[in-house]
Write a structure and sequence with these properties.
Blueprint: H1 5-11, E1 35-37, E2 40-41, H2 53-65, E3 70-74, H3 77-85, E4 93-97, H4 102-112, E5 118-122, H5 128-133, E6 138-144, H6 156-165, E7 169-173, H7 178-181, E8 191-195, E9 209-213, H8 216-229, H9 235-245, H10 248-268, E10 272-276, H11 286-292, E11 299-304, H12 307-317, E12 322-323, E13 333-335, H13 347-353, E14 359-363, H14 369-379
Bound molecules: ligand P1T.
The site of ligand P1T has 17 residues, from helix 3.
Length: 380
């Protein structure tokens, strides 16, 4: 019988180590593995760019959480995203959602465009607008849902149906939802990417990434590029992500519980113009979020009244919330996307999307929620 999510998070890939019986997967800090005879490898291990047992454990674990067959661990979310994109050939076309993490936008626009890939960024919250954008050379539809930083929700099933009818692959960045709240492979997505830096590791102490797929051919292609180009994480980082994942389920429950209370608090506050949180009825895709996710996550974006001056003085005043980039750790973080995480978006793109000087993004941690609300109340 297939074990449930919480059990798999703790056990999958992490069987006791066969030589010593160590219950916790060891950090195999080695670059190479002895061979019994030329080409005769123990358990398939030869050189740690290709395979490392700590990494293998993490890859099996993340694949299982996504209900996928194949997982790959990367040294960063951007490395995972770049390696998947490297499957394409010059002349291929990618349709990406418009509110994609700015680092993804940057690598598409500034790196892959130079290698003659084409990109269009469109509002994929309206799936009917997608079909007009599909061209003969469209190879990937790239989703991020909820998106960073505006928490737009894409109808994953509708988009994967359109993609399949047109023989196009779908990739989704599932970093914000995590597999605890959203399982895109079950909605027809071909490849899931993650920044494990965020919720999967959960403790703001590593940079990492992951890819999961059910398709053996895609897995082999991505693995080949990863090994050929050398985009691999170290064993200590893999160990930390594995350790973080063991508590993913209970962390996500608390992140969401705290975020819901804070979103409701902010929505009533007179200094706040608008709150964006998929769990609020006021979110334009609330019904869709309820349908395709099993929870709404821990990220809230909101617009403060009073322009940049108000944003600045609020962000300088918070004490429990740390003014810092990133998200998904146990501690609450808060930031100003226009000046901090989304600077690589051109001004006109920020304006079009609504990433203004009044926009604030917070990653609600798992501290006592009353302390977090006190901190926000005092600072607003
Ligand atoms: O930082 P890295 O592990 O390379 O992950 C990049 C990345 C990919 N996808 C999403 C949805 C992300 O949010 C990120 C990184 N984001 C931040 C650092 C941030 O503060 O938004």
């Amino acid at each position: 019988m297939k074990q449930r999510f919480e059990t798999r998070a703790i056990h999958t890939g992490c069987e006791p180590e066969p030589v010593t019986g160590a219950v916790v997967t060891p950090i195999f800090q080695t670059s190479t593995f002895v061979q019994e005879s030329p080409g005769k490898k123990k358990e398939g291990y030869a050189y740690a760019r290709t395979h490392n047992p700590t990494r293998t454990a993490l890859e099996k674990n993340i694949a299982s959480l996504e209900d996928g067959n194949y997982g790959l661990a990367f040294p960063s979310g951007m490395a995972a995203i770049s390696t998947v994109t490297q499957m394409l050939n010059a002349g291929d076309h990618v349709i990406s959602c418009d509110d994609v993490y700015s680092g993804t936008f940057r690598v598409f626009e500034k790196v892959f465009k130079r290698q003659n890939l084409e990109f269009d960024f469109i509002d994929l919250t309206k799936p009917h607008s997608l079909e007009k954008q599909i061209k003969d050379n469209t190879k990937i539809i790239w989703l991020e849902s909820p998106s960073n930083p505006l928490l737009k929700i894409t109808d994953i099933k509708s988009i994967t149906n359109i993609a399949k009818n047109n023989n196009i692959l779908t990739v989704i960045d599932n970093t914000f939802a995590t597999p605890f709240f959203q399982k895109p492979l079950n909605l027809g997505v071909d490849i899931v990417v993650h920044s494990t830096t965020k919720y999967l590791n959960g403790h703001s102490d590593i940079i990492g990434g992951a890819v999961v797929t059910n398709d053996r051919e895609l897995y082999d292609k991505i693995r080949f590029i990863q090994n050929a180009a050398g985009s691999v994480p170290g064993p200590f980082d893999c160990f930390l992500v594995l350790r973080g994942i063991k508590t993913l389920a209970i962390r996500m429950e608390r992140h969401q519980e705290n975020a819901m209370k804070i979103a409701q608090f902010l929505e009533k506050h007179t200094k706040v113009r608008k709150v964006i949180y998929p769990g609020l009825k006021s979110h334009p895709q609330y019904e869709l979020a309820k349908r395709q996710m099993s929870g709404f996550g821990g990220i809230i974006s909101f617009f403060i009244k009073g322009g940049l001056d108000a944003s600045r003085s609020f962000l300088e005043r918070v004490e429990i919330f740390s003014l810092a980039e990133s998200l998904g750790g146990v501690e609450s973080l808060i930031e100003h996307p226009a000046i901090m995480t989304h600077t690589s978006l051109p001004k006109e793109v920020k304006e079009k999307l609504g990433i203004s000087d009044e926009l604030i993004r917070m990653s609600v941690g798992i501290e006592n929620v009353d302390d977090l609300i006190d901190d926000l109340e005092k600072s607003l």
